[in-house]
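Notebook entry, structure prediction.
Reason for the run: the old model in the group folder had no record of what sequence produced it. Starting over properly, with the input documented here first.
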Amino acid sequence: MRLSYFLIPMSHKLTVDLGDRSYPIYMGPGLLGRLGELCKGLGRAETCLLISDKNVDRLHGEAAAMSLEKAGFSVLRAAVPAGETSKGHDQLCALYEQAVEHRLDRSALIVALGGGVVGDLAGYMAATYLRGLRFVQAPTSLLAMVDSSVGGKTGINLPQGKNLVGAFHQPSLVLADTDTLKTLPKREYLSGLAEVVKYGIIRDAEFFQWLENQGVSLRDPAGGGVEELVARCCAIKAEVVGLDERESGLRAILNFGHTMGHAIEKVGGYGAWLHGEAVALGMAYAVRLSQTVRGFPADEAERAMTLMQELDLPVKRPAYDWPELRKAMAVDKKSSSSIPRFVLADRIGAVTVGCEVSEEKLEAVWNGMKS
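New structure, fully documented this time:
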């Protein structure tokens, strides 16, 4: 059964339904102080490794550690450099070494406090150290709250491409304290809105219209509507993951805009574009490609482009050469025999996965976008 946006209140708990691996998502303001209490409810663990990046650790690390200690945990802390470059082999090995040094055993709990980079890195460390430790996602960025913290995808990047090494490893719980968004740099917050728009396009036309009605007010995390926004996105993600945990079918809709988005991140150099910014550019490309290949109505395409522009998301084509982008798409994990597979829109609220597009159309649509 589809979850209705209008049935989701502020400060809410949802469940990702995966049988005996189901877990709750807690969303709302002021939740970080309950981190220890909720983690203690998971049982067993006495030692916790709190993993963050240096920026988030400075802002929220002490509060998170105090909450965990108050609940009786022995807390170890690790802070990696901020940014996409930390999502790689070097930082992963550093975390392994710290775990060995402190003699973490299989009862230990890993807590990921931060954005998508920290969540993916800490989650993959938890998935692989001692063949699997339990972990908790405590996202502090909008992008992580609405997308990467839910669903169990963990991993690191290789120089050749993004997320090429990883594992499915579901968290034991997700805690999204929306107050942490008030400390997020403006660019980071706006970047997260790309994934929000994505949910409306791929799954929920009613939610897309709600976003249109909110308009520019959504640019400000303190402007109201953020709790509803996070709750609705998490509800959609929880529903999709519950139906297709390992991306054998339906879950692939979540990749809308990501095939080109990942290529832009790679060609631009990791860190030049924030992930959400690259996804916004990828969605702009996918919208135009959908018009050409799937007959996506022109008025709905313009609604999508207008909403992204109102939210200060980039939609103009960067000056990257097509051959470089095409080469990057060939190593994307969603490609088959170097042929990229796209998620394309049929209408707002409905998409088709696994679309192959001729080389001529791929290049022509890219070159035809505004720069």
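Summary: Confidence is low (pLDDT under 50) at residues 1-10.
The old model has been moved to the deprecated folder.
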